[in-house]
Amino acid sequence: MTKSIITSLFILSATFSFGEGRNVNKDISTAVIYLSGHGADDAVEWDFRCSGGMNSGRWQKIDVPSCWEQQGFGEYTYGRYYKKPGGRASDENGLYRRTFRVPSAWNGRKVEIVFEGVMTDAAVTVNGISAGDVHQGGFTAFSYDISGLLRYGKTNTLEVMVEKQSKDKSVNSAERRADWWLFGGIYRPVYLRALPAVHIAHAAVDARADGTLNVKVGTEGVTAGYTLQMSVDGMAPQSAQLSSISNRSGESSVTTSSVTSRWPGISLWDPEHPNMHTLILRLVAPDGTVAHETTQRVGFRTVEFRRRDGFYLNGRKLTIKGVNRHCFYPETGRTTSRRLDVGDVKLVKAMNANAIRSHYPPDAHLLDICDSLGVLYLNELPGWQNHYSTAVGSRIVREMVMHDANHPCIFAWANGNEGGFNTALDTLFACYDPQRRHVIHPWALFDGVDAHHYPAYQTGVGRLANGNEVFMPTEFLHSQYDKGAGTSLDDYWANWSRNPLFAGGFIWALIDEGVARTDRGGSIDTDGTNAPDGIVGPHREREASWYTVRDVWSPIQIAPVAVTSSFDGTFRVSNNYLFSRLGECWMKYELLSVTSPLAGAGRDDDNVAARTVASGCVGLPDVAPGETGTARMTLPDNFAAGDLLRLTAFTASGDTVNTWSYPIRHSDEYWAKERLAIPDDAGLGISTVSCSHGAPVVLESAGVRAEFNRESGMLVNVSMDGRTIPFGGGPLPVGMKMRLLDIKSRQDGRDALLVMTYSGAVDSIVWRMTAEGLLGMDAVLLNSRDGKRFGGQFFDTDVRNFGFSFTYPETLCTGMQWFGRGPYRVWRNRQRGQTIGLWQKEYNNTVTGQSDGRLVYPEFKGYHANLYWARMLSATAPFTVYSETDGLYFRVFTPEEPTDSEGKKVHTMQPFPEGDLSFLFEIPGMRSYKPIEQLGPQAQPSHIRINKGDEGLRMKLWFDFR
Fold first, then answer.
1. Which domains are delineated in the chain?
2. PANTHER family attached here (predicted)?
3. What is the 3-state secondary structure (H, E, C) of 302-313?
């Protein structure tokens, strides 16, 4: 390795650790000039020529930093699939050119050019002279000493030749044959950095929870008698004599020393209280003058790994609620910005996660953000199922750890991913990390940490159930399409959290990595099934699983409570924070009255609303982490007038922790209340029933006409004032068998009834037409009082869908308004996070994760839970359905399956019932990477057993076509 690169590695960490300097004095501070933008938001144009692919072969302008594909150059390649039929690894190169000036005053200082990230090989020349060896590796920063190559006060020319594919086979194996989009270019910032001739080249800190500050400082140009002066947050400085303890760099001009100081009264850093302090380091000459001054932000905390126990922070055991995240945005690829990444970190925290992992070191500003906002980070050496050679890997470990070691958010290191481990590199992490954080091997059991990927719910012998090592899966569950990370998370987390060896885990993954392709007009491409793996969409559109994760991982958990007439305003609440007392948060309640379309006969939107009739604060118990107490709210005098109680918890800064809602009325009680709003029917006639031989059986009243097939009992036609409402084709049995035995009709006051009896799983269905024109369906299922059995189909039988379906043309539907759980659809094993309320959404045909320009969330089609009522919106055929049965699922049409890169359907969902609209007691679960049989109990089909004398199930619905 040349002298310039070796020296630059020490200078490099000073660049990132100390920032841009305080400009206390131009002679003692660090001066920085950016040659590029700081990120995607303020990129600077350079001259550029690409060797192949789009817009190749001529000089043009390109933004720096950027990925050149996203600027319209080169070719697109998806990592590990570069060898698929017809595919190849794009291997173009790009030549960058930039002229710049440096101040004359910099002459005599040490000037570095710093590249924070280039993919993948970079050869740098300044004024036609090589700056040093070609740098290989796309995810770590590097720099060169170019002091002797510059023309001070004059124009200089920088050229960088970038090879997309590395000349080193192991670099390609570790980085370029991975499961992600491949990009080329100078995609992270580039800047010049000038230091005094005598300076601090590097400082690695270990700021501990007891206030001890250990600093390993590398200096250059220092002679005997120099001291290091330290100050934290302006407190009285402490000085220590510098003495050489080692020289790992092999560069004779760099001397490494170790100094220790103590700072009482500092505030500790943890992810819930991310207290950061400003450390000032001054290099003081024997005559008392300051040769160099730098500043950096530090967090005082102690992180440790205890074998057969777990990870600890400040003496408290951690539970990692983590998500895997790549540095990625559709329009800019791997090039990010502080603004964009602040949004991502806030998005992660808002869903109550506390940790991030990626397959490579992130941008420097992302770690700064995690430090400031309080997110733990698992920092990983690149190596996706293949690893670097020892020669290359040793350098990259050094670049990575020296660059990032001072960030308090990093709680552990990872050496590669899924077999991409060069074990010869494991001991090198501690050489550059004074905190000696633990090193893990993601997906493997290594050095006391079992990071097994995608374990089944049961986990199995040798893992969590019967293991004796710390269990922290670095990938579990899977967010591909709507097989989202929320599916079965409730089961997994409850099961695993019972074991003291469980240290938490990381969901795969945060983002659908859809790239906006410049060769396709900016359309989003996820390479078929390879990249739509996110809890959120490519532009951070929240999918349903985001809300499930937020609910399951909420640090405030409310014990099951039924808000009935016996509810006195108290409920049990648990503090699942790691470091915060519950008194640091606050909670409010809202009492809502939800009106339905019934009073307006389904014709007036204005009368449908969820109105707040009372609100106030909830007193939270100030319990410590891990404890449970009683929350109290004073019930308002009009509490009985409400339909829904909504609770929302907030952090001290006002961020939402989670929202819960509780119905105050059962479905039949709500229906009875709403029916009281119907005007008196005294002026109306009576309903009629006609059963003419050979004609349909007809119920009719108030302009509503419902026709039934006398052979099958099916509703075949509905009209309102002669206008057809195309709802019918049912009740079609779902998950059961039934056969019509008999139809009888009778009057019940003003109402007309059809009583249909069946053999099979259905005992009877009573259809009722009221004088107002409401059509009711009262079905009794699985009634075995007479000892009937149902051909074995419902005796100890697994059921995934169970209920009734009807037909209704999807083409006529424009949207839906409903009172129930929402606003997103649910699966049997993903219902948490959706709250009961009044919701509305327009029709859309979004295929979750398939970014074809039609992404609208929440998705329209699918299963919706806890139906009270739903109004199908249509320009020509609207109607409303009400449920008197608690807990019904409302299936709305059949979602489309996604397609792979070849246009073939990908089967992600269990089969939907026949028909278009269904009312169901049971719905299927959704798998998440593992087969559905290997997920938790909520994913499994129901097991229905019928005993003699059972009263069975009852489904009562009302249809309003008026």
1. 3-195 (2.60.120.260), 303-552 (3.20.20.80), 556-664 (2.60.40.10), 681-785 (2.70.98.10), 807-949 (no CATH)
2. BETA-GALACTOSIDASE
3. CEEEECCCEEEE
